[in-house]
Amino acid sequence: MPRYRQQAAVTPEATSLLGKPLFRPPVPEANRKQLEADAASAFQLASGEPSAVNIIWLGRRTAYLGKFREAIQVFSGGMRLYPTDPRLYRHRGHRYITVRELDRAQADLERAAELIKGQPDEVEPDGQPNARGIPTSTLHTNIWYHLALARYLKGDFAGAADDWRRARDAGKNPDNLVSSSHWLCTALRRADRAADARAVLDPIRADLDVIENGSYHSLLLLYKGERQADAVLAAAGEGASGTAVRYGVSAWHLAEGRRDEAKKLWDRILTGSDWPSFGFIAAEADTARAARSTR
User: How many CA atoms lie within 13 Å of 175's alpha carbon, on the beta-carbon side?
Assistant: First the structure.
């Protein structure tokens, strides 16, 4: 039976930053058949024509089924054929973040950043398109964004801020502006650069035409004082976007000196099941960092 149809593995996909085994998340029944069909099609295409593009899509479709380790193997195989393709390092770096191998993630994404020097940017097609069907990210913005995230999770807040600034400046649309600016503002405040963080908020307006990053937009308006934390949290849904909101509010509380409020939100995030999301991983990192500081 092809690997994309196997049952969830009994071994963990990852170990959390708190030492907890993390098992493959269930695929929602509403789109399971479509995701499996997409993965099957990607497998056939990559088997018949192992181009870099086809291999990347196979890795991405595999990851959408929660098979993150298998996706890493796909990208690694692609690198043996295309060792200088930055897209492979970008995607493998992302999935190394998912499985909490942050040093490997950083190494991959730094390599991707080297490979794009002097190269034109390109739109990165969405595997799960937004409501308008308009891709909002590019290869360059995604490389800098994910490299910044790896640094942030490791506690290198100043380095993360530098890379999120690069991600913000490389983008051309409101979605990239708000996603990068949220993390840039957060990283700057963690690096004790409050004035620089406030300056990040200058171009953020309530009427920005944001397509898919509404959670980050609402957080930035909170940081500007134009939203209330309770209202932002009340409007947060479930899944990755809701986790992002809860983590963003926790980081805001932490920066304002309300550590107990931040910890309550980290605890709430960590009782959920959305462990592949960036907000979840960040809550793990902050919880682990807080535990170390009290020893």
Answer: 13
The 10 Å CB-count burial string (b at 16+, else e) for 261-276 is bbbebbeebbebebbb
pLDDT surpassing 50 at residue 240: yes
What are phi and psi for residue 157, nearest 5 degrees? -70, -35
> What is the DSSP annotation of 35-100?
HHHHHHHHHHHHHH---HHHHHHHHHHHHHTT-HHHHHHHHHHHHHH-TT-HHHHHHHHHHHHHTT
**Unique residue bearing structure tokens 């940081």:** 223
Closest CA to 138 of 190, 74, 192, 86: 86
Q: What are the backbone dihedrals phi and psi of residue 15, each rounded to the nearest 5 degrees, phi first?
A: -120, 130
5 pLDDT tier (thresholds 50, 70, 90): very low
- Biggest alpha carbon distance in the chain? 57
Half-sphere exposure of residue 55, counting CA atoms within 13 Å on the CB side?
Answer: 21
Considering only CA atoms, give the Rg of the chain: 19
pLDDT band at 3 (very low <50, low <70, confident <90, very high): very low
Q: d(Cα 93, Cα 91) in Å, to the nearest integer?
A: 5
Q: pLDDT tens-digit profile of 8-66?
A: 457 999 999 999 999 999 898 989 999 999 999 999 999 999 999 999 999 999 999 99
What six digits make up the tokens of 34? Answer: 């479509």
Using DSSP, state whether 188 is helix, strand or coil.
helix
* pLDDT score of 6 more than 50: no
Judged by DSSP in three states, 21 sits in: strand
CB 145 within 8 A of CB 167: yes
